[in-house]
């Protein structure tokens, strides 16, 4: 695949917004200060009209950046090394790329315009296409905030990049990369929905709320215990898997699809033996994934493994955050066990570990995490794959509540939505599926040798759709 053309322009808010410095709360400081990208694929129009035309995307984006004005600003580090956003209308980067390949060249087949889905795309699509070639600019920015420096290079402080890749067949891909310091998954869903509303001529149904001082810690000053889910990087932010063999620095990435029936089956299996009630879909599917990844790694039974995930705290704080809160409204929680306990016990064991980790997290714990975070000077990241559990952990981000397949940016709904890459071994991302309501897509990044074993694991695959997307 060759890049025929590539150009970059700035998109500014439609009208000047209030210039100010936006305080970033503790949760904004314990996510990786890098860009997280979302991919939307669109099939060609039968009548030959252009898909998601750039002029329309720019026009709607310029309107969107008025209520979402911090995203048109720039990130900077204060003297005390904490980050903040300078709201100055400097704009978003808009990149447009034309390539000579078609979606079918990439292994993607559109079955019908009424109910579009992907049919066994080739790994070539993700190895050789928009995620690896036209997005070079975004790829560089993804690691640009990995140091605790002054952020002196202006382009490295841009909060949002938008890229449209146009294929020879008339199909297109829309990718937007948003700095995680500025938004979490819930906020990305809010941003995406608002953009879709503007792009289709509607009013924004939920106005964004930007005051992050609501999450300032109310704990008294003084020493705080370090949360086991977090660690401080004092200098350069190294890859999370740097302690592993070189092949694991570029994990194999695959997507697996689970149907409503299979999810129900897993809930039933996980809940066997419970005296009353049942485990949730989240608890059941993640117990299954945690167990399966652990089995594929072939670890000694005495080794320790951790399961980490994000917890939405928007309704857990008192008072609750406004529905339109923009920022990172999350905390990390973790469960741990020996490999032997995970593999030798019924699925309910792992599911119960996950339940206990979530249910035992209190508001007092949350404010303690905030207070500890506010005292740190270095970059704070998730404590995954370190120490005694190096190369043994599983970290899950659930975007399952993100209603992404109803989004319309001006020329129809996407045929596929997914993240642009898993950053490390054992990272798992959950999203709604292109297959329809109730289906779930699970993206897994794993050491290539272990991924090969996972793909052949009959116990893992018996609950997974046979026609999986084999090439995330």
Spatial shape: globular
Helicity level: 10-25%
Number of discrete domains: 2
Quick check: average pLDDT? 83
Q: How many helical elements?
A: 12
Question: How much is the radius of gyration in Å?
Answer: 22 Å
Largest sheet descriptor: 6 strands, mixed
| CATH architecture descriptor text of the largest domain | 2-Layer Sandwich
End-to-end Cα distance: 18 Å
CATH class of the largest domain: Alpha Beta
Low-confidence region ranges: 110-155, 236-248, 466-472
Structural class: alpha+beta
Number of strands: 17
CATH-defined superfamily of the largest domain:
Chloramphenicol acetyltransferase-like domain
**β content, as a range?**
15-25%
- Sequence of strands across the biggest β-sheet: 1-6-7-8-3-15
- What oligomeric assembly is this protein in? single chain
CATH fold category name of the largest domain: Chloramphenicol Acetyltransferase
Kindly describe this structure.
There is one protein chain. The protein has 472 residues and is of the alpha+beta class. The protein folds into two domains: 3-214, Chloramphenicol acetyltransferase-like domain (Chloramphenicol Acetyltransferase, 2-Layer Sandwich), CATH 3.30.559.10; 230-461, Chloramphenicol Acetyltransferase (2-Layer Sandwich), CATH 3.30.559. Helix content is 24%, strand content 23%. It contains twelve helices and 17 strands. The strands form four sheets. A six-stranded mixed β-sheet has the order 1-6-7-8-3-15. It has a six-stranded mixed β-sheet with strand order 10-17-16-14-11-12. A three-stranded antiparallel β-sheet has the order 2-5-4, with no helix packed on it. A hairpin with a 7-residue loop joins strand 16 (427-432) and strand 17. It is globular and about 60 Å long.
């Amino acid at each position: 695949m060759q890049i025929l053309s590539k150009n970059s322009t700035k998109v500014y808010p439609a009208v000047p917004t209030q210039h100010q410095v936006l305080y970033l709360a503790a949760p904004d400081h314990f996510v990786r200060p890098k860009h997280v990208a979302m991919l939307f694929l669109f099939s060609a129009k039968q009548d030959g009209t252009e898909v998601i035309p750039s002029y329309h995307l720019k026009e709607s984006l310029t309107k969107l950046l008025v209520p979402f004005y911090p995203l048109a600003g720039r990130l900077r580090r204060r003297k005390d090394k904490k980050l903040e956003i300078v709201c100055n209308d400097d704009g978003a980067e808009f990149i447009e790329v034309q390539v000579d390949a078609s979606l079918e060249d990439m292994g993607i087949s559109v079955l019908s315009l009424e109910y579009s889905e992907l049919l066994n795309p080739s790994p070539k699509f993700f190895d050789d296409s928009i995620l690896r070639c036209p997005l070079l600019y975004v790829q560089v920015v993804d690691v640009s905030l990995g140091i605790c420096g002054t952020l002196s290079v202006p382009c490295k402080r841009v909060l949002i990049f938008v890229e449209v890749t146009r294929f020879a067949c008339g199909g297109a891909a829309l990718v937007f990369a948003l700095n995680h310091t500025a938004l979490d998954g819930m906020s990305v869903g809010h941003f995406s929905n608002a953009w879709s509303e503007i792009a289709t001529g509607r009013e924004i149904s939920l106005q964004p709320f930007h005051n992050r001082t609501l999450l300032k810690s109310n704990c008294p000053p003084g020493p705080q215990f370090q949360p086991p889910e977090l660690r401080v990087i004092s200098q350069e932010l190294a890859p999370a898997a740097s302690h592993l063999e070189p092949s694991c620095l570029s994990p194999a990435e695959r997507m697996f699809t689970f149907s409503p029936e299979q999810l129900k089956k897993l809930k039933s299996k996980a809940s066997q033996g419970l005296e009353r009630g049942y485990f949730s879909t989240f608890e059941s599917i993640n117990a299954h994934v945690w167990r399966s990844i652990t089995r594929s790694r072939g670890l000694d039974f005495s080794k320790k493994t951790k399961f980490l995930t994000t917890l939405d705290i928007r309704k857990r704080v008192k008072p609750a955050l406004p529905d339109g809160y923009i920022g990172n409204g999350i905390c990390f929680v973790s469960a741990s066990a020996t490999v032997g306990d995970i593999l030798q016990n019924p699925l309910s064991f792992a599911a119960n570990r996950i339940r206990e980790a979530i249910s035992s997290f209190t508001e007092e714990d949350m404010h303690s995490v905030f207070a500890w975070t506010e005292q740190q000077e270095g970059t704070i990241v998730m404590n995954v794959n370190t120490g005694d559990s190096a190369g043994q952990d599983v970290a899950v981000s659930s975007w399952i509540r993100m209603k992404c397949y109803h989004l319309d940016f001006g020329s129809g709904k996407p045929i596929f939505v997914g993240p642009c890459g898993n950053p490390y071994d054992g990272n798992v991302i959950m999203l709604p599926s292109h297959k329809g309501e109730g289906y779930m897509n699970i993206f897994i990044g794993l050491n290539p040798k272990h991924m090969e074993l996972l793909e052949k694991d009959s116990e893992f695959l018996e609950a997974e759709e046979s026609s999986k997307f084999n090439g995330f």
